[in-house]
């Protein structure tokens, strides 16, 4: 098993990038028993993007893969707050 590597979400966590990020996440999940998610660069985020993260996090829980946030931008946290997903996504440490 590979040790945890930062998985960068990039700047756009929106519908235009969802399929690409989903593919990258799936590869990462197959190779690793621990996922370090870096959302610090996210400047555009929408509901499909957050839904993808929620699905991925659920998959991790079901497969006993450790999910940890390396960073989260204000935009990401604000969007999660708006949709009531701060807790489910594990972003509590980044939300004041």
TrEMBL record:
Annotated coiled-coil segments of the chain: none
InterPro entries: MlaB-like_STAS, MlaB_ABC_Transporter, STAS_dom, STAS_dom_sf
Segments forming domain STAS: 1-96
Superkingdom as given in the UniProt entry: Bacteria
Pfam families: STAS_2
PANTHER family, alphabetized: BLR2341 PROTEIN (PTHR35849)
Protein name: STAS domain-containing protein
Organism: Enterovibrio qingdaonensis
């Amino acid at each position: 098993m590979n040790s945890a590597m930062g998985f960068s979400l990039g700047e756009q966590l929106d519908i235009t990038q969802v399929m690409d990020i989903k593919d990258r996440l799936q590869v990462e999940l197959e190779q690793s028993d621990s996922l370090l998610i870096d959302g610090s660069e996210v400047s555009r985020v929408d509901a499909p993007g957050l839904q993808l993260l929620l699905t991925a996090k659920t998959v991790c829980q079901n497969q006993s893969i450790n999910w940890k946030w390396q960073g989260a931008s204000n935009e990401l946290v604000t969007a999660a707050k708006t949709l009531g997903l701060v807790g489910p996504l594990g972003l509590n440490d980044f939300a004041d």
